[in-house]
Design goal:
The protein is mostly helical and about 140 residues long. The chain has 6 helices and no strands.
């Protein structure tokens, strides 16, 4: 459940940034805003697409641990570069929400994608191919 909720959150954030959905400005405007605040353009693109693709991967449970790692890295970066200076509380643009997302990402990283993840299907197929018939 944590994986799916985290995936949904980051799909929404990524779609907002990359495609301009849900009232977003779109990719070029978002990257422009990020670079205006000192972020290198390459990193801004990585963050935008990392949120979108990481969110999709988490939603379907594909490479869940890798996607969760990317999300955690993005959120740590957001705290360091943007939210830390505003203190803890969300009402002041602080980092409390980012910490909650990091905790969710770490839960997926440590626990895996769960029984309904596409990862589980891939692992099952791989282990079936690797079995040796002993009869």
């Amino acid at each position: 459940m944590v994986r799916i909720i985290l995936g949904f959150i980051f799909f929404m954030h990524g779609a907002h940034k990359v495609m301009g959905w849900f009232g977003g400005s779109g990719l070029e405007a978002t990257v422009g805003m990020m670079t205006k605040h000192g972020m290198p353009a390459v990193l801004a693109y990585l963050v935008c697409f990392g949120e979108l693709l990481g969110g999709i991967a988490l939603l379907i449970g594909f490479l869940s641990r890798i996607a969760a790692t990317g999300i955690v890295i993005i959120m740590v970066g957001a705290i360091i570069t943007v939210h830390r200076q505003h203190g803890f509380f969300l009402q002041n643009q602080g980092y409390e929400y980012n910490l909650a997302l990091i905790a969710m990402g770490l839960a997926v990283l440590l626990g895996g994608g769960g029984c309904l993840a596409f990862d589980r299907f891939l692992c099952r197929k791989k282990s079936q191919r690797g079995q040796v018939d002993t009869k």
